[in-house]
Write a structure and sequence with these properties.
The structure is a single chain. By secondary structure, the chain is an alpha+beta fold. The chain is 32% helix and 25% strand. It has five helices and nine strands; from the N terminus they run βαββαββαβααβββ. The strands form two sheets. Strands 1, 2, 3, 6, 7, 8 and 9 form a seven-stranded antiparallel beta sheet that branches. Strand 2 and strand 3 form a beta hairpin. Helix 2 packs across helix 3 and helix 4 runs antiparallel to helix 5. The protein is globular, with a radius of gyration of 17 Å.
Length: 208
């Protein structure tokens, strides 16, 4: 996964560290190409020894709702089924999500052992927008309100949100890069556009 330069993201990231008095918000957005380089190809080959790329893997239900995602929206990528299969993703997509985490958090963390049940497909774009906006507005108030339109416009310009499948990473405490004491909440969203072969990763946490 290659990190793509994006000056708009860099400008926004500089504003996504916000002191709120009793806590600190630390966030970043990054864009990655899904075109595999040498190290990724080697990792993908090893990954495929555990199952073929087109095999579907079961995902966990999203934490944001008790309703299964397939009841609310269909996959935008088109190759991962409708109905009950919307709670699954191909192993190739799963590899992209894991490789994105590795690229974003290296060298401090290794996510190569992450499993499909650590991930969820989110119900809809609006649901994710509301969840992110609600979390950041509650924590950062006016500072985020001023940043909000610019943030989502930059993400849309980079990834075309209406074409994306959106996934989240919700690991157990042992696998959570934000699992240390003092972390109040966090989120990790992947906006995957299959046509563009690109993922925008939005990660954020609030620490005391």
């Amino acid at each position: 996964m290659k990190l793509l330069e994006n000056s708009s993201f860099e400008a926004i990231n500089s504003q996504l560290t916000i002191e709120t008095g009793d806590c600190q918000i630390i966030g970043r957005i990054e864009s990655y190409s899904c075109k595999m380089a040498g190290e990724d190809k080697q990792m993908f080959k090893q990954f495929c020894q555990e199952g073929l790329p087109h095999v579907l893997e079961a995902l966990s239900p999203p934490q944001t709702t008790g309703v299964s995602p397939n009841k609310l929206s269909q996959s935008q990528s088109g190759d991962e089924g409708e109905g009950p299969l919307s709670d699954k993703c191909s192993r190739k997509t799963l590899f992209y999500l894991i490789a994105t985490l590795n690229a974003s958090f290296r060298p401090d963390y290794d996510f190569s052992r992450a499993k499909s049940h650590d991930f969820s497909r989110e119900p809809s774009l609006n649901w994710v927008l509301n969840a992110v906006n609600s979390s950041l507005s509650s924590a950062a108030g006016g500072e985020f309100s001023r940043l909000q339109p610019q943030l989502w416009q930059a993400i849309d310009d980079e990834i075309c949100l209406s074409e994306c499948d959106i996934y989240s990473y919700n690991p157990d405490l042992d696998s959570d890069p934000y699992g240390e004491e003092g972390n109040l909440w966090s989120f990790n969203y992947f906006f995957y556009n299959k046509r563009l072969k690109r993922i925008v990763f939005f990660t954020c946490r609030s620490v005391r």
